[in-house]
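chain below, 398 aa
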Amino acid sequence: MKLFDVYPLFDVNIVKGQGCKVWDEKGQEFLDLYGGHAVISIGHCHPHYVEMMTAQLNKLGFYSNSVQNKLQVELAERLGKACGYEDWQFFLINSGAEANENALKLASFHNGRKRVLAVSKAFHGRTSLAVEVTNNPKIVAPINDNGHVTFLPMNDLAAWEAELAKGDVCAVILECIQGVGGIQMATKEFYQGLRKATKKYGTVLICDEIQCGYGRSGKFFAHQWLMDGNDNCELRTENCELSLAPDLISVAKGIGNGFPMSGLLISPDFTPVYGQLGTTFGGNHLACTAALAVLDVMEQENLVENAREVGDYLMKKLKELQASPEGKHITDVRGRGLMIGVEFDIPHAEVRKPLVYDQHCFTGCAGTNLLRLLPPLCMTKENADDFINRLSSIISHL
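prediction:
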């Protein structure tokens, strides 16, 4: 038997990681600004994470959701405090696609509707409902193409209000910072207008925070930048507009720092029903331990604040590079925190491949000409300077 060949792979075998660095089987060190697709939140092989996972595995790795699991309760309480939604509910699953799948199901159970609005260039996963709200016909199989979804441009509030006014929309699903879509960002005016319109017409608002959430934007959730008029406002202060919170929030990727898990944050407006949702592996003992270790490190090392500070620094350096002769091919730099897009007037492959093979640095990409930077949240300013030097050495010769 051989592998089903669906991934275009770099000819690199990564065998070791530490912090923002990884090493291949030949001992070559790489600077990691990809984080395994935004999954590595607290850094590769963080000692606290390794210690907690090892200790839990020596006790119990898994039992089903037919018995109590106090680690799930602890995780829900800790996460509620960390993100500001302490009176919400939490459902644990295994992947980002499952989180969005369950969000859409729960929305439909809630209001009995079927139609969904999603953003042009959206990516929400590859399972049945999740792929239907993903704006990429190449990965939507005929069996998934059920006509439930209308795709609309980001930030065109009038178009969204016109569709919502028809009164038949079950849910709106939104990445406030698009990942695969190219680091396109929702504006505050759009988000707030959309939230008010969804409430007016009885539509459920789902924020997909799988890639842009869990501290990556410099707030715990990316939508929290858009909830109030003061950019420095934290969610839990009295000046924040809690009424602008979404109804459902999907999380994955960074929640487990590499252990497969995800979750759905559910507002108090939803009443659970036995058997309505379910999962075999979701919220298992090892997964919850991974998530608790992540929250420990995020709090102890102030990684949300670090993402904001280092992200601002990296954006500044990238814009300085753009303005210099060496950065002549950079046409735009955008993003928040440590979720940054660098757009070029040449195909990203001309930059990304030599970054990997010549400068030994991993990044992501989007579209045809955008590098997507998704480093671990422990990235330092020294790492940022190192990356700028490596990037400059590539693009200055193109």
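Residues 137 and 145 are 9 Å apart (CA to CA). Residues 303-323 form the longest helix (21 residues).
thats it, cya
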